[in-house]
Amino acid sequence: xxxxxxxxxxxxxxEILGMGGTIARHTDAGDAVRICCVTDGSSTQYAGNxxxxxxxxxxxxxxxxxxxxxxxxxxxxxxxxxxxxxHVDVNRVVERQIAEFQPDxxxxxxxxxxxxxxxxxxxxxxxxxxxxxxxxxxxxxxxPTSSTEWTPAPQTWWQPNWFVDIxxxxxxxxxxxxxxxxxxxxWPHPRNDRALRVHAEHWGTVVGYDAAEPFVLIRNVExx
Amino acid sequence: xxxxxxxxxxxxxxEILGMGGTIARHTDAGDAVRICCVTDGSSTQYAGNxxxxxxxxxxxxxxxxxxxxxxxxxxxxxxxxxxxxxHVDVNRVVERQIAEFQPDxxxxxxxxxxxxxxxxxxxxxxxxxxxxxxxxxxxxxxxPTSSTEWTPAPQTWWQPNWFVDIxxxxxxxxxxxxxxxxxxxxWPHPRNDRALRVHAEHWGTVVGYDAAEPFVLIRNVExx
Amino acid sequence: xxxxxxxxxxxxxxEILGMGGTIARHTDAGDAVRICCVTDGSSTQYAGNxxxxxxxxxxxxxxxxxxxxxxxxxxxxxxxxxxxxxHVDVNRVVERQIAEFQPDxxxxxxxxxxxxxxxxxxxxxxxxxxxxxxxxxxxxxxxPTSSTEWTPAPQTWWQPNWFVDIxxxxxxxxxxxxxxxxxxxxWPHPRNDRALRVHAEHWGTVVGYDAAEPFVLIRNVExx
Amino acid sequence: xxxxxxxxxxxxxxEILGMGGTIARHTDAGDAVRICCVTDGSSTQYAGNxxxxxxxxxxxxxxxxxxxxxxxxxxxxxxxxxxxxxHVDVNRVVERQIAEFQPDxxxxxxxxxxxxxxxxxxxxxxxxxxxxxxxxxxxxxxxPTSSTEWTPAPQTWWQPNWFVDIxxxxxxxxxxxxxxxxxxxxWPHPRNDRALRVHAEHWGTVVGYDAAEPFVLIRNVExx
Amino acid sequence: xxxxxxxxxxxxxxEILGMGGTIARHTDAGDAVRICCVTDGSSTQYAGNxxxxxxxxxxxxxxxxxxxxxxxxxxxxxxxxxxxxxHVDVNRVVERQIAEFQPDxxxxxxxxxxxxxxxxxxxxxxxxxxxxxxxxxxxxxxxPTSSTEWTPAPQTWWQPNWFVDIxxxxxxxxxxxxxxxxxxxxWPHPRNDRALRVHAEHWGTVVGYDAAEPFVLIRNVExx
Amino acid sequence: xxxxxxxxxxxxxxEILGMGGTIARHTDAGDAVRICCVTDGSSTQYAGNxxxxxxxxxxxxxxxxxxxxxxxxxxxxxxxxxxxxxHVDVNRVVERQIAEFQPDxxxxxxxxxxxxxxxxxxxxxxxxxxxxxxxxxxxxxxxPTSSTEWTPAPQTWWQPNWFVDIxxxxxxxxxxxxxxxxxxxxWPHPRNDRALRVHAEHWGTVVGYDAAEPFVLIRNVExx
Lengths: 224, 224, 224, 224, 224, 224
Prior knowledge:
The structure is a homohexamer. Chain A is an alpha/beta fold.
């Protein structure tokens, strides 16, 4: 039975860095996949620069297509400033996505050192509460590299308990990230081809495969 | 020696769902009890609807009276939006309640998946700091059902260490909640007669009684 | 695709109290299920009493059959004394079970206040390490009532993140436990018909179903 | 209503270092207090030296009497070697104490870097499980200085949530410890008059009193 | 090799209460030390009172000079209201300090019950992320007394793993705090000469010295 | 000033897998380094096989020499069976090493899923308690690959807060491990050349270097 998978990112590239290989596995399996990027991704760093805005949105779409995802929703909440919005306003957009797409599986960016990530996770936590008739049965967080690993150690709850073998899709993940020219940084920064491969191979050795991506399971409900 | 008990709720019904039976025990014992509901309880969900506002406030008072509490203070901070208020403004109303009522025991809603609950707890934590001559000697959190149990597992610190036998007051708790028509939801939602009974009996079996309510002790100071 | 499910218990009845409804779901689904009880279940409490030993083993088999499980392996490590055995000796029996049965899914009793439970979990943790070609892909812990809930709050890591709807199998769970006459205790003890029903209904309301069982996911690996 | 208080120590002096002032408060209040020291306190450090054994037991009794406790039970499990005993054997002695003394309140040494402390706590956790008709309603751990504070930071769960004002009994605590000549160490070691006073005053400032002792509440059950 | 040390405080006196003795050790060792106080320290408590503002800033400078620090930067973000500022605005001032001063070591006030402390820590966590060529190699948090110890026990991550012997500088710490007349409170409040001495001596006994200050290491990177 | 560094391993190869690059940095810096392997490393897996025993000890010495360490102490406690020894017996050998070598810095294998690792750590924790005149000022744990990463997620406290750039010594770490023919496993197992390089590069990207090793700081005391 095919899954309906909704991936929440705070910024374009979160979803590739954290789970590009897993997204490709879902599309390969025939699952319906939507990626929803909650912020505009550039308004704070490049205020008023429509050029950059368009460039980044184009990169995001191309990256998604490389992974087989055409359903890419790019919302326009202000990047790096979700903490300035009322929580209910972030809830509203997250809830609308869930109401529209009716996913059974939700992936959300890890609530890490980045406050936008925390805000998106808080709203996903609200929107996926297991009330009767909740359509979402499984919630997982993924770790966008160059963020989750930089969370202060005594505060983090990132201890992965879910792993996906991406041996067969790692190359597509790397290809997808190559579209993100604006986010590319030279090795040994985590955002480049070499670092993404090393990251996948590292997590691969952790679970006995050539390449893997790690996740934290938040909740899984097996319906009757 | 009788206690002076101040119960902080974020929304009307928090205190019944979480500790209705314990409130009745306090009033039965002759303790002075005040319930303080920090938000108006409806302004976000039913914006501008004075009818609903009055209905909910009426429900809250009747529920409190059922438990023997006539000292019910209903403040008007905006429900579901405490995160938009400066922390000092929430502190101020909490501190005023403590200054006025002079409680030795404070119960606060658990800082769970609901951001209003987190805001109220943060302010209670500030207002009850154990400075010299602090009147508050004991702080506990209670878990309003349909909220605390829906907190993401890796983030929660809800591990109850305090339990109250409510065998003798469970019926009054259920009766009190029946006043909350606006909050009632059909089983298997946690907000109805059957679910509240199951909840109390479950926690009862945990500690060897017919019915119980769970709490987390934040701090207790035994004065000389 | 059918699963191969291996359930590790320390004592007869652990598996019914903690996950009887889920076991029945697995057998209903056509999954291959083995239950392995690691200790003899009575040698410490009823030393030298072969009568009791046979009675309890008979109860265990009947309970398992009620859930559709005929593959019940009863080992004879000394009950309440696993802490006196070398860790490698417990590892050996656990590893042999896994080597023989080749499960993809392992359920283990939660490492709670009971030291036998801790010992079994420690060995399951070793035996299911995700080395290359590890057959076990998923490890979960279940909470036998009258044990996990009695773990000291500041030490426990029991925060369930996995839930199974057992609406359709709760009756069979209760029927299975009725075979355990030697373990039955009167309400409000957790080991009787009424308490097991309350427990299941409580966890049901937590996730929006009539009845459920809670688990902690230790590790899940999605193979390519 | 007077309490029945049972204090478990692993070694003579644990109870003075950790809660001497609180013990004196209990006896002042007319509570029935028993101290039970689980190990002989010297067999490993001073093997075969009966002289030392008698000296330490004498010190322990005099210290207890200074605090108003004549009911001092000195068991003879091997000190520094509780990890070599079967868990059930430690359980047995702890359970017998509880059966005999029928305490409503139990204090246990914190499960810290000292393995004997962990063993005693494990058995207290078992013996005080909240089964129906459990007489023990409250379980707290105390921190013997020169042990709990030396636990590796990432492993400890020592975060005190319970404090007792010992302004009126600190002098008696110091007097009691003076009997422990064999355990006295020069400042800045924690086991001497000056260090014990500093410790009490430090915890006093934490909660607004001249002197205090910290505890962790494990469980409190308020009966109906 | 001398260090470049940047100390972030939220309010004037945080740095003295938490690490005055350690600051003096750094200046004694010839390290370059800057203290940066992020808020004006009085605008909320004494709104519009320029007199107080100047008094407190004068106290802060004199206290710093007593410890050998002339590089005291007093920013003017609103005290007790950092939660009302966009996170990026706090980031900006923290990042500017780091860019200007080029520290290898950063001390930050602990993210405790005080929300301003949490806000400063969040921004320090962002500004010190270990990207390639990050100048900051070591990040520690310190605990300003009358704040960190009052954090609700179940929420705090204050478990010190780093200690500094301040036997030789304790007197200067006390002298420095004497300049803070506006913050002085009578014993047993933690903000006075006696309490600061007790605090230092308490932590001294924890690690075997006459006086010490505790810290939590957030991250240390040993460069090649 | 040169350091005196004592590295505790439970089994030969722990120290190379976890911190081979850091050991080489210490010897390059002129620090005195001793490696102490607490178990014989083969008696359980290869009982009675003296050949293997000698082979493994030879491998260990050659590996150590490759890193510049000639002071390699190989004790003979039984491998995979430290849980069967009295805690005081493991303490004794650890304490003797510290008394003899007088290290200021101790590295210990992480207390992870391997019970021998837990036993060694427990004894190191006892032997390095910060009593007055304790010579050990710094204690860190390292993570031997193919062990620490396989610890059940909800139990582990492995959250590294200390990182060492091993760009300059990675090649020597790999060369050292090549001596361990008996422990080599094919990729994607973590014990081979490729996996060790991936591991080091992964942790390198986490902190901005080409290669790094991660640690957890247990305690650091800066003496006056």
